[in-house]
Amino acid sequence: MLRALLSATTRSAKQDDPWDLAGRVAQLEAAHRAHCEQPDLLLVRRAYRIAEQMHRGQARKSGEPYITHPIAVATILAELGVDTATIAAGLLHDTVEDTSYSLEALRSDFGSEIAVMVDGVTKLDKIHLGSAAEAETFRKLVLTAGRDIRVMVIKLADRLHNMRTIKFKKRPSQIRIAEATKDVLIPLADRLGLYIIKRELEDIVLETLEPEVFRHIKEHLGSDTDRKRQVAAIVPQVRRALRGYKVAAKLLDRPRHPYSVYREMQKHPGTGPSDPPRLVVVVDGPATECYAALGAVHQLWKPIGGKFRDLIAAKKFNLYQSLHTAVNGPGGVPVEFLIRTREMHQTAEIGIVAGLGEAGSDPAQVQLPWLRRLLEWQNEIADSGQFLDSLRCDLADQDILVFTGHGEQVMVPRASTPVDVAYSAGPAKGHRLIAAYVNGEIAPLSQRLRDGDSVELVLTNEQPYGPSKQWLEHAKTPEAQLHINGWFDSQGVDDLESTGELPIIPMQRFEDELKAGKNRLWRSLIARGRGLAGDQPLHGVASSLGFPDLDSLYLALAREKLDPDELAEKLITTVDRF
Ligand code: MN
Description:
By secondary structure, this protein is an alpha+beta fold. It has four domains: about 15-195, Orthogonal Bundle (Hypothetical protein af1432), CATH 1.10.3210.10; about 225-350, 2-Layer Sandwich (Beta Polymerase, domain 2); about 395-490, Roll (Ubiquitin-like (UB roll)); about 495-578, no CATH class. The chain contains 29 helices and eleven strands. Helix 2 (about 20-35) packs antiparallel against helix 3 (about 40-55), helix 2 packs parallel to helix 4 and helix 10 packs across helix 21 (about 385-395). The longest helix is centred in the first third of the chain and has 21 residues, at about 170-190. It is globular and about 105 Å long. It starts with a helix and ends with a helix. The chain binds manganese (II) ion (MN).
């Protein structure tokens, strides 16, 4: 009797709720309870009721009721571990844009914290703004993020669900949305450290834009039995080595996702998909344990040169921290290791959201250098199209790691110059810069650096020192720009305190080398019964030989990269021609 009654109830509930909205909301609540310390389920239900009521009668392209989209977005957010206010904003995120619910009504029902987030992801009116609407919408998002970074997390969850359901769109829309996701949303996910979302977006973009390649890679990953065997052989050996070093750690297999395999194929044209073993070592203790684990791994197998990256000590431009290394594993198979603490591991998955969960943290106070830079621009750039272009451009830049000697590493944006590296250690170092060696060669201060370059700075203590206006063109980082402009604004301020330790080439060595180079040239000239009245002809010859300045030329002479006799002959011909 009871059973009959129950099944009758279930049946009628199913009839009223054919899309199982109740089940989806229950799933959302369960995810929120599992990942949040103080969930406010009453608020979640209140936000759901309003959103469901407002969207009632609207449908998605898939044919499902529209409310399934906000529920799915809120569930993605809940799984990341956000707070209840963000979940409520996720449920309500399309109400102001797509229903009769006004921002004012939302503010009075839910307060301004949630209203600010919903407003931040609400698109601007195409009717009033025309073609500028898309760019202005992004500008608004960036502005809101300056006040509350959670708005970006909602935007990404929104896009993730739209990408998961992209197959219901027409082909031209699919391509347009996938391209925009690739250009702007994926780099944003990267900057926020939301790698868990970034990876999934990358895979869907690849599947949408290159369906054949995607299928090919998927098939390979599914049938790669070599890798499984290799990992199974490696893991016990690593465990033993870690025990030997008294490091308590968890080992995780970290296969590449399809897009990551694709990226490797792009880097090495002509190669097929491959996914060599990659392990994550999550140590129990503090960061120092990571270096102990690294020692254990390097003791076990020979490290592959140039693969070690210290993303713990390196100055960070995003949130990610780990040690990276690669070794020649058993049978010469290259094995990659990512070594990190538990906190670093969490940040490696959910980035900024990990920090938001900390007690006493204020989402309005989250400061990210790249966001500050965006906020600065948006003031200066009046044209909205140009703003979107700059945004795309800035987001396309990836950070690189350069070595500053003695094994120290500094992270700077791609295409940074020695000027940026110098100023990354504070104005005291930057202002004293006079020359730089890149990979052992004297290089112009305008040289764009590449990942893995070694940069040695030549700094002077002799007065007068200071930047030149030209450095503003070389400086890529706002930090360097700021300090250089600051120098010219307040000429003569001399109480510069050093803020970081960069190894310096002793000035003496640099000057000795210059002198030695000069002497070589003079000796050759004198041997030919000539001399030089001024530097003028030398400048011409130097630049015709591809040297950025005379110092570089003298250094090349000192290091026997340039034959002084040949140079002397060239100089004489030049001078005699006039
Ligand atoms: Mn939406």
